[in-house]
Amino acid sequence: MPREGSATIALPRTGFKRFMFFNRFTIEREDAFVLIHFGFVNKAGTLGNAYSTAISELELLSLKKSTMDYLGKQGTLLDPPPSWQAPASTPVDLANHIVMAHFGKIAETVLYSFSNWSALEETRKQAAAQQAKKNPEMQLGIVAEGMALLRSPLGVQQHLIRLLFPATESLLPSE
């Protein structure tokens, strides 16, 4: 049973809008958002593909512990990718949640999106149902949309995590 004041967010395993390999990335912080630009650059130095997403600093902060625990279990940090400047005209999708995994040296970064308003409404419905004792174990939830399934070398993902959660800097200005 979900805790009081929470909604269950279902993360689909299929149906992503975007599938992409990346070997470069850059991160920009803009107001209360973190923009992440992913790119595939071939051996000739030509950009083959690019994708950009934005996640709020608050949502990213909620992922810090689990993501840093994941990174900590990997051992030694592998070599970083070369620095890269994202193209200026890439559309930016919104994400609320990031899930990471790896198998050997192949890493997967998965982006999901859902409406915060919908999550709040589900929380209110659940609280009302529990208060009315209609169905105290009722599990309400919303289904997140699979935005992107991105694969990269493990070292690239490790450095992405390191830059998403810098050790010397707070994500929120008030901290």
SSE map:
Blueprint: E1 8-10, E2 18-21, E3 24-30, E4 33-41, E5 47-56, H1 57-62, H2 64-72, E6 92-94, E7 97-103, E8 106-113, H3 116-131, E9 141-143, E10 145-153, H4 154-164
Parallel strand pairs: 1-9, 2-10, 5-6
Antiparallel strand pairs: 3-4, 4-5, 7-8, 8-10
Describe this structure in words.
With 175 residues, the chain is an alpha/beta fold. The chain has one domain. It is 24% helix and 36% strand. It is built from 4 helices and 10 strands, in the order βββββααβββαββα. The strands form 3 sheets. Strands 2-10-8-7 form a 4-stranded mixed sheet. It is elongated and about 65 Å long. It starts with 7 loop residues before the first strand and ends in an 11-residue tail after the last helix. The model has no long low-confidence stretch (mean pLDDT 85).
- Give the end-to-end Cα distance, rounded to a whole number of Å: 32 Å
The major sheet is characterized as: 4 strands, mixed
Give the topology string: H per helix, E per strand. EEEEEHHEEEHEEH
What number of domains? Answer: 1
Structural class: alpha/beta
Count of runs of 4 or more consecutive helical residues: 4
Number of strands: 10
Helical content, roughly? 10-25%
Beta-strand residue fraction = 35-45%
Mean pLDDT across all residues, rounded? 85
Instruction: Give me the Rg, rounded.
Output: 18 Å
Quaternary structure of the protein: single chain
Low-confidence regions: none
Give the overall shape, derived from the CA principal axes.
Answer: elongated
